[in-house]
Amino acid sequence: MRLLSLTVGPRSRSLGSNLFQEPLSSESERDWSMTDTRSSQKCVVPWDVSVGDLPTQVLAARAGGRLFLLPDKTIDGVGIYRDDVAGLLKTLRHHGVDIGFASAREDRRYLSEYGAADVVAVIALAVAGSLTSDLIKSVSLVLWHRARSALGADPVRDEVGSANVTVRIAEIVRNDQETVVRGLEVTSPVADIESLIRDAISDRRPTWLPPEASDAIAPESTSE
Predict the structure, then answer these.
(1) Which of 2, 20, 1, 17 is nearest to 170 (CA)?
(2) Closest CA to 18 of 51, 45, 43, 53
(3) Nearest CA-CA partner of 65 in 136, 135, 140, 143
(4) What's the CA dihedral at 105, 115, 54, 205 to 10 degrees?
(5) What pairing do the DSSP bridges indicate for beta strands 164-174 and 123-128?
(6) pLDDT (tens digit, 9 = 90+) per residue, 95-148?
(7) Sign (positive/negative) of CA torsion 111, 118, 93, 79?
(8) Whether 143 contacts 165, CB under 8 Å
(9) Which of 39-43, 105-109, 148-152, 160-164 is the least confident region?
């Protein structure tokens, strides 16, 4: 089975050894940046994500309605998450979002290193299959609760909705012949995330995959 990455339109930035910022000093370390909530920019671009950037259990997951939370950074194969994400996932599940860690339990660690109230973390998600309407709604909920948690002290709804955030989504589309990873990056106020993702999905071309292998053998022609 071949593993491919797909980028449609202008490239957002090269991943290299780093998923989200300028290259770090070590090629084994990838970091996910943060975005200032005071900006109100809206931007939709392809995310240049490859098969090698995704944990094995995500690539092997069955297509369905589950989202996977990718780590904030990866160091030597270990996924590093913020120390508050376990509570975030618990809250999301309580609100009906099917979401889990992309990194296996033995391959993840937690750090407390982001404390500024005026920033919202960039968040990255993966899904086995294409983004459906329900999944887009779930992504929007993830961003809303992430922003609410980052702002702290029970912010009002309007404050959460106006917070600027960046979400990066990896869709893993496959059959028995190939696996294609499509990446999408959206930056906007939380309130506009859902509509921007829907517009981006509706405007792109379908992903082409070769036909699946068939076990059936066509009968030989008996005509003279």
Answers:
(1) 20
(2) 53
(3) 135
(4) 140
(5) parallel
(6) 999 999 999 999 999 987 655 433 456 899 999 998 999 999 999 999 999 888
(7) negative
(8) yes
(9) 39-43
